[in-house]
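B., you asked whether I could sanity-check this one before it goes into the benchmark set. Here's the sequence:
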Amino acid sequence: MIEKEFVIPIHPEELLLKKRDRYCVDEMDILSISETILISKLDDIQERLMNNCCNIIFHENFDLLYHMMNSYVHMITKRKAQDCFFNVMCSCIDELTKSISRYQKNPLESNEEHKKKLNEYKIATKMYVFLFAHAITKAEEEDIKEIKKNMRKKKDKNKESLAWNGANIKEKSLSSLIELLELNLGSLWSLSVPEEEFTNLFVLFCSTMLKNGANTKSKTVKDCIFSIFTIVVQKYKHSLSVATSLISLLCNNEQATKIVPELMEQFVDKNSNPQFVGDIIREIGKMDTDQMGGESAAIKNVSNFIVSVSKQVPKIVLQNISVIVPHLDGENYLMRNAVVQSIGFIISNLLSSSKKDKKEDKKKDGKEDEEEEGVKKSSCQQRR
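And here's what the prediction gave me:
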């Protein structure tokens, strides 16, 4: 029986603070444990969790995984243990997904027992995703730091890379999390959708992954990230948190000005959800760019995004043009220029669409004339 609720903290370290009304972890000097013993402990944990995925709620299972996650970047010399950690997480998430799916098809008849079981699954799901999301985030942040260091100096060939960059580990991890998200997780909360703190965990690591150019160059990884954002927005209705995160990403990361418009295009073309693109544009319309500095990186990135997204989905930008037009009255010339270019792309798109429609109408009229002429000839031949 679960005695304490697992409350998702803003920062992982908060779980070390002792609180009576919620789950907290015990202290552990994870770095002093040898790699051999760590792997042995991880194997034992995996065996217990594969036997019953909800056993994650017990300290003997969760706490070691937590400390490995929290100290992940300091365990670079324990590559095999890192590998084992991600393999355990992938296997257990997969087992959790299968277990929840089986239970949803054949729930307990007793209403009280049913509620207890759902609560057990809910807490287990929160714990697994919390561990996985923060482990991915920490690994990605460390990888980004290493990339920046290597740009300034020669790469140390003898330095071992993080396990997170190993063969297919990213693809496996993201695929496992997507399968979990595709379940009806809202039923575990007895609501239509899970709590926002839970879905924000997915937004957290996906946003961090988009900062890493290596991820956006991989079609498989990029598609997985886009799929997670799509599910969070469309299925779980948490578009505001995704929009806020993407705008923050745009302000702080130059390469996001290329990848976010691509995501916007997918929402329009593949997911038929232009509303979300409108949400992003409206948030940009609210920005006080005069206070952000004339030529700051954030202003440059946002103005480049406006231009890019106008090329990608001009019709949707046109529908929301009124919210960014006020930037023409602002003092920032980069934003004024971006809005002017945006309007230019929209007009160009409208003109090309009009020409295309006229060509199609002419072809249609030509075919109709040919058909009419064919009918006349056939009629004349019959009379003869």
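One thing to flag: The first helix runs from residue 35 to 51. Otherwise nothing jumped out at me.
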